[in-house]
Amino acid sequence: QVQVVESGGGTRQVGGSLRLECTASGYTSRVYAVGWFRQAPGKEREFVAGISASDRVTQYSDFAKGRFTISRGNSLDTVYLQMDRLKPEDTGVYYCAARDGRATSSDANYPWWGQGTQVTVSA
Q1: For residues 34 and 43, what is the distance between their CA atoms, to the nearest angstrom?
Q2: CA-CA distance, 74 to 123, in Å (whole number)?
Q3: Residue 27 neighbours by CB under 8 Å, 6+ apart
Q4: One digit per residue, pLDDT tens: the chain, 123 residues?
Q5: CA dist., res. 70 & res. 72, Å (int)
Q6: What is the spatial distance between Cα 2 and Cα 74, in angstroms, rounded to a whole number?
C-alpha cells in the first residue's frame, strides 16, 4: 500500500505563487512517479504536471507550461508543484497521484491518490 499525502493549498491573489507538496511512500524505499491533477467545480479532473520515478523526466499540460514547475525534493518520496503567476482559472482541488515507472497524463494509470488540497485564486 502506498500512502499519498498532499499539502500546501491555500488562497492567493491573481499573480501570486503557491507551492504544493506531495509525499508518496510505501513500505519500501521505492520511488514512485507522481502526477498532479486538478478539478475545478463542475469540471472534469485534468492533468497538471508529472515527474517520472527514476529519470525525473517531467511533463506539463499546456496551461501549466511556463507557470508551474514540478520537482523532486532531496527526499525522493517528496514532489513539489511550484505554481507562479496564478490565475482565477487555477482554482480547484489539486490531487497528487502515484504510480510505478513513468508519469503519464491519464488519471486512470495512477492507482494511489491523495485526498486533495484546495487552491483558490481570487481576483
Answers
A1: 22
A2: 35
A3: 1
A4: 899 999 999 999 999 999 999 999 987 778 899 999 999 999 999 999 999 987 789 999 999 999 999 999 888 899 999 999 999 999 999 999 999 989 999 999 999 999 999 999 998
A5: 7
A6: 19
